[in-house]
Amino acid sequence: MTLSFEDFPPGHFGTFGPRRVTREEVLAFAAEFDPQPMHLDEEAASRSMLKGLSASGWHLCSITMRMMFDGFIGRTASLGSPGVNELRWLAPLRPGDDITLDVEVAEARVSRSRPETGIVTFKAVARNAAGLQLCEWISPIIVRRRDSAAGQAG
Question: What sequence ranges are listed for the domain MaoC-like (predicted)?
Answer without folding.
Answer: 17-121
